[in-house]
Amino acid sequence: MISVRNGAATRARLAALGGYVPERVVTNAELERQVDTSDEWIVSRTGIRERRFAAPDQASSDLGLLAAERILAAAGIEAGDVDVVIVPTATPDHIFPSTAAIIADRLDARNAAAFDLLAACSGFIYGLAQATGLVEAGIARTVLVVGAEVLSRITDQADRATCVLFADAAGGALVIAGEPGRTTGFLGFELGADGSGADQLCVPAGGGRLPVAQSPGREEGFIRMKGPEVFRFATRVMVESTERLLASLEMTIDEIDLVVAHQANRRIIEHAASRLGIPDEKLFNNLERFGNTSSASIPLALAQARDAGRLRPGDMLLLVGFGGGLTWGSTVVRYEPLEAGPR
Fold first, then answer.
1. Options 1.10.10.60, 3.40.50.300, 3.40.50.720, 3.40.47.10; which CATH number does 1-343 get?
2. Which neighbouring-strand residues pair with 174?
């Protein structure tokens, strides 16, 4: 699905960013002591050197709340002014109530509708698309999108194929109604899914098909990944989604200031960048320090790019993600932050 946002009377504006990572650092050296692996093996195959794990008393809502508070502070927006809270997550606190409702309550966002969104690692792009649709349809003026994950809880720490990858974090953005004639906003989205690959990256137990109470063993509640298949899917779809979106917008990579891809694997990102002709200076990665944080990875990287001076007001961004489902999504948007309040 491709949507080009050239007919909207009101442009949705990317107005603020924020992220949060837990305190506990898990290094490759620590993983060497629990599975048959090495720092050299992990770095050469993934690019990851360390990741963060949530404290035992922290859930996705706790991480998401801290990220949400930073986003609103960056924009100078009160929680009571938020119309909708969307939380992309693969690790909600509960099946219901939604993690978004819990975060909205703890923020004191009393006027906000709230719901979770499940598109795995593509969740943040899907969430931005929903926020854009709500704003440009006139249903909402201020939408908070917060990806929040505690993937360490659903990762088998004895499985070398997955325990080196997945980690915990939260990150998000504020999408608001822009000023007519002045806001560039989101230029377009390219979204898609291929359910025929559902078994390539999944958590078997926990839903209505296989409730936890009926699962044959605890391993059914952990992430299962067919690595080679997912790698082939990711390297293909990142390139194809980006090419389709840029073609629909009649744009080239030369018109993009910064590219932030889902932080899953360094080799996947490097392959896509090479195929698309993206120079290193236009890429921002934080995979080395934080691993794969699913729906939190892109917004966390954006917030850190901003803080590092790599993302400046007015920059044109290309964001692209992929994940379980199998899903994918990309968007081109101009970063137009509100000039208010401390970060």
1. 3.40.47.10
2. 16, 144
